[in-house]
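Ticket #4471: structure output looks truncated?

Reporter: J.K.
Steps to reproduce: submitted the chain below (227 residues) through the standard prediction queue, then opened the result file.
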Amino acid sequence: MGFFFFFQYFFFLVLKHEYNNILIKIIKFFIINKIIIIMELEISNCSNETNDVLEESSLNNFFYIKTEYIISYISEYINTLIEQNKNKKPDKQTRKNDVFYSKKIPNLTIKEYLVRIRKYSDIEDLTLICVFIYIKKFIEKNNYIILINNIYRIILAACTIAIKFHEDSNYKNLYIAKIGGLDLLTMNKIEYYFYVLLNFDLNINEEDFKKIENELLIENKKIIEKY
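Returned output as attached by the reporter:
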């Protein structure tokens, strides 16, 4: 029955002379899905090196840092960038070409959005740190301007790739898309472009990780001393 209604809708669009756009969308959907499958295999094959670095570093310190502190640390960093860039408005063409830019903004703060992803994906604390490093790398490599209109998709793309690269979880993109409030095609596109704009470099050296670790330990100590 669903198959019948799909073709009924397709022929309706043909009659309206919109078939070219629909065909392009269908082709894009299958191409991007194929690319995502290849990416997942590539990510799976090259994840051991970074995971070894994380295991060899003094990560026992992270067991003393609560997840909420990590999320607060990441969200505060992002909110600072948004505040710094609040008067920077990209032109129409830039907005159109940027897959991360969206007029529709989730009705959640950055912190609430991270908490939601954490809750429904069970993303590990160490992976959250990797997400933060990937976002910083993404910004630095591309001189990317973080705005309230693009950060949510960037966060979701970074979390998706980090989970696949650093964890054994086997979540499908459709499930992650639902967590982030996106359709599957958009989810696949932002994951693909985030990976490309990172120059396919998902490795994290121990120096990068230790720097974040030390900053978090300092912040954690401040919070503990308050109480």
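Triage note (M.O.): checked the attachment and the full token line is present. Residues 19-46 form the longest helix (28 residues).
Status: closed, working as intended.
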